[in-house]
Here is the input.
Amino acid sequence: MQVLSAQWMPFVLYGFRRFLETGRRRSLVGGSAALVAQNLSCGYYLLFFSPFAAAYVVYELAARRRLRDWATWRAFSIAAVVVGAMTLPFLLPYLSVRDSGVGVRSLGEISMFSADVHAFATAPGWSWLWGERLDTFLRPEGEAFPGLSVLGLAAVGILAGLAGRWPSIRQALVRGIRRSTGGNRRAPGVDGRPYLRHGHRPDDRGIPGADPRRLGWSLGKRAACCYARSCWRRRL
Here is the structure.
């Protein structure tokens, strides 16, 4: 049941991001308190999520070009010390019990119960809808299918994000198409007939022909580059 207690994660990321956006210490305190609550809710997430939260902070600072903002680093360092000081007293009894040899798993048990990506396509056997349909990875603790509710909410979030960025995506696609086809610039073809610069070439009969794979790769690459540049400029 402890792995279900992941509700504090978004509050951690939200608090840290709001602190970087507004500079309010209240947001940093809220994110740090949520991280403490997450650490005390699940030992797995204490080990797995804490490094991710630190990496997220570094990413946000790099995206804002504030890696040399020592005041912000000092604030996050103080927050990290406070989070560690509030978490450590609850870890010491666990470590003392572990040192006594109680509940220590062998390497074989750790390997047997390790996570696998196939588990996300495996539903519990007691599920009347998915139990017999999603049986990809049948083994102990190998049933991690999240259910349609989680997948549906994730799809809604992705669609909402794409809808908000659709103008930028459309502009990037237009730029990619123009650059991939050379815009208004055309290279001379056979018999003076022009053909597109990228992805098009005259065939053996001298008639302008197209290479769909090359054209598709060129369009995708240029559209992705244009979209990445537009997103980066908006952040600046």
About this structure: The helical segments are 9-22, 25-41, 43-63, 70-99, 107-112, 148-180, 212-235. The longest strand covers residues 200-202.
